[in-house]
Amino acid sequence: MKTIFTPGIAICLIFSVSCNTELKNENEALKEQITKLHNENQSIKDDGVKLSSSLDNYKKILLEIDNNLNSIQANYSELSKDQIEAGKSNVENRIKSRIQIISELMSNSKLKILALDRNLIELRKTNKGQSEEILALDKQLKAATDELLKQEI
Question: Model's pTM, two decimal places?
Fold first, then answer.
């Protein structure tokens, strides 16, 4: 009887240690992502973001905002899964980290939207011949703003 329970207990312990290590690694990765986003947000705030007035740069920033919005949605999904496991160790830290990441991503997106909006006037002045393309980019920016506002609710 003892020989049956001993291997079973050993397997449970190994599995438990493996899960804890995985959670710790994920928590560390989340903390690194939070730090990176926080630093980028602070840089945008401090520098006032002097974007070059080019259509390519505008498109690049819009793509970054779209990626942020997708990441926010993914973190909301993961947050829902984490809340189901709320009693497990390290899950509470992961939940807090995900909430912080969502907050930083939203802040990052807002700052980029504001910077793009401020630079839109200059973009129109320097690229008069491409007004249709600028209008399309402006519509994309408005859609990204609407999506961000919808996700804040």
Answer: 0.62
